User: Fold this.
Amino acid sequence: MHLLVAEDDTMLARSLCEVLRREAYTVDWVADGLAAQEFLGRGDIDILVLDLGLPALDGLALLRWARARGDTTPVLILTARDQIADRVAGLDAGADDYLVKPFDLHELLARLRVLGRRRSGRADPVIRHQGVQLDPVSRGVSFKDAPVVLTRREYALLLALLERPGRVWTREELARRLYAGGQEVHSNAIEVHVHALRRKLDPQLIQSARGVGYMVRGDA
Ligand code: CA
Assistant:
């Protein structure tokens, strides 16, 4: 899952990004509203964590702009603005959630998982598909009840594919999901991860869509 953190407090942003990366999120960070706007415009973001008081373009203005152009990216506002009127304004501008600083990290992570579930249309916190079980809370994966050890990127790839069974992902889409902006991506990186997942799980789980990319079949 690819997160964009729009936050101009450098200390907070750095520590937040570090925690999120440890949770196997792909994370990009921007420190002003215009940079966030540019990022969102490219459409590679799964969840936006948005500060309201941002230089260049205020968080609320950015959010209204995004919603007006039909952008459905889940948005969690993370702000020091703690008045009820601020919360109402943020939610009514199109945010999916609102958390006030200082915040509890565990609560933030749980709320991000909620947004991830909603994005993929799930209610069950655990993903179960064709003998594979993936728990986003513990990041535990098992196949036919036997635990499977995955690297961070293998986990992120499996999560992407399992979130939307039946959807064909191009290699480029998967790479954007797994690698932050500016990170060098080896041309066969996705193939390598797919190969590893096929080896560790059911070899039939991930299907190749010839010349296009990969998918897991839609039937549960
Ligand atoms: Ca700020």
